[in-house]
Amino acid sequence: GDSVTQMEGPVTLSEEAFLTINCTYTATGYPSLFWYVQYPGEGLQLLLKATKADDKGSNKGFEATYRKETTSFHLEKGSVQVSDSAVYFCALSLTNTDKLIFGTGTRLQVFP
Amino acid sequence: NAGVMQNPRHLVRRRGQEARLRCSPMKGHSHVYWYRQLPEEGLKFMVYLQKENIIDESGMPKERFSAEFPKEGPSILRIQQVVRGDSAAYFCASSPQQGAYEQYFGPGTRLTVT
What we know:
Largest sheet of chain B: 7 strands, mixed
Oligomer: heterodimer
Number of strands of chain B: 11
Number of helices of chain A: 0
Largest interface: A-B, 23 and 30 residues
Structural class of chain B: mainly beta
Largest sheet of chain A: 6 strands, mixed
Radius of gyration of chain A: 13 Å
Number of helices of chain B: 0
Order of helices and strands of chain A: EEEEEEEEEEEE
Structural class of chain A: mainly beta
Distance between the termini of chain B: 36 Å
Shape of chain A: globular
Number of strands of chain A: 12
Strand content of chain B: over 45%
Order of helices and strands of chain B: EEEEEEEEEEE
Strand content of chain A: over 45%
C-alpha cells in the first residue's frame, strides 16, 4: 500500500548546523508531497509542498525536492536555529483522494 | 482569522464511557478530516466529511467510532465504550474545497482512557 518512511529521531544539532531529514515514499500513481511541522502542544503546520516530479518546495529556509527516480523528498536547511526544534512529518496525498498519509515523524532538537 | 478549533484539548474517560470530540473548521471551510496519532506513531487518517456527508471513512474502526458534520455546528467524532487502546491525540483538519490539498490542522484533543 501507499506509505511514507522517515528517518528515526531524535536528530540533535547545534545552532547553525546543516539539517537533513530523509523521507522516502511508496505510492501508486503520482502523489503530492508535503512536509508538516508540529511545535510542542500545537497542531501541524504546513511547511512546504511539491506537487510534481523535480519541483522544489521551500519556506523559512527549508527546502525539499520531489525526486521521482529515488521516490524521495528529503528536507534540508542550511543553518538551523533553536526555534526550529519541533517534530517534522513527511506526508503524501494521492490525486484521487484527499487524505494525507504521514510518516512517523522526526523530532529535531537544536541546542545553542 | 480564527484557525481550526478543537475542544476539549484534553479529555479523560474511564473504560466504557463515551468520548465526544468537537472540531470547528476555519471560516469558509466545508471539508473536515479526522486523524489519530497514537503514541510514538505518525498521524493516521480516519474519516473525511463534508457538510452532512461522509465522503471517505476508510480509516475508521468498524465498531464504536462514528463521525458527523451537520449543516450547523461543529464536526463531532464520537467514540462509544472507550478502551485503553483509544488513548491518543485526535487531530482535525479543514480545507476550503476538495482537491485543494492544503489542510489546516487544529491543536488536537488528547484523549486518555483510564
